[in-house]
Write a structure and sequence with these properties.
Blueprint: H1 9-30, H2 32-39, H3 44-71, H4 74-86, H5 89-133, H6 138-142, H7 144-194
Helix pairs in contact: 1-3, 1-7, 3-5, 3-7, 4-5, 5-7
Length: about 200
């Protein structure tokens, strides 16, 4: 019995992302997400969250396309086998590298977005520190009456710093998880198409 194997990439993507969504739902239920987004006066965390949801959605589209290729690798094979047959043995490795490069580049931007989410979170840290310390001067710290307001400003800035880093880190982990599964599917497509 021959089964048309798609390696279950869409099922694995779905289950993994449902678990991430459930985790975020539990955090929402506890009020942690609202706290994070309310404390971020720079709105960087909001941007990272929207950006990440778009990339996760795009991961599903890429997963669908890879699933189709896994189910029927002959489309890709037909494009390259004829070329491989028409060239000498020494040029076949070059064609295999072309196929590998195409498969890697098809999903490589998802890894780039994961790194970008983390970088924007770290950038939010710097912005938060700048916001926190922009109004601090030596005179306000030495004056006991102004110290409370100064400390409050610093804490608001630190809140932005920590929350944007947290959101960026979570987005990075989520997107990298999807990228890992898509990378595995790409490797299997390469193996099914050209035999490794």
């Amino acid at each position: 019995m021959i089964i048309n194997q798609t390696d279950g990439i869409l099922a694995r993507l779905s289950i993994t992302n449902i678990l991430w969504i459930a985790l975020l739902g539990a955090c929402w239920q506890q009020g942690w997400l609202q706290y994070i987004f309310n404390q971020d006066i720079s709105f960087i965390s909001h941007g990272i969250a929207v950006f990440s949801l778009m990339v996760v959605t795009l991961s599903f589209w890429k997963g669908f396309v890879l699933s189709v290729l896994l189910g029927n690798p002959s489309d890709l094979r037909d494009r390259y086998i004829d070329k491989m047959d028409s060239v000498g043995k020494d040029r076949r490795d070059g064609i295999k590298e072309i196929v590998k490069t195409e498969l890697v580049s098809y999903i490589s931007f998802i890894e780039y977005f994961a790194t970008t989410a983390l970088a924007v979170g770290v950038l939010g840290t710097v912005i938060g520190l700048i916001l926190g310390f922009q109004n601090v001067d030596a005179a306000s710290i030495s004056n006991v009456e102004n110290a409370g307001a100064t400390v409050a400003d610093v804490l608001k800035g630190l809140s932005v710093a920590f929350h944007t880093t947290l959101v960026g880190g979570i987005a990075n982990l989520w997107i990298r998880t999807n990228h890992f599964m898509l990378s595995q599917a790409s490797a299997k497509i390469y193996t099914k198409t050209l035999g490794g």
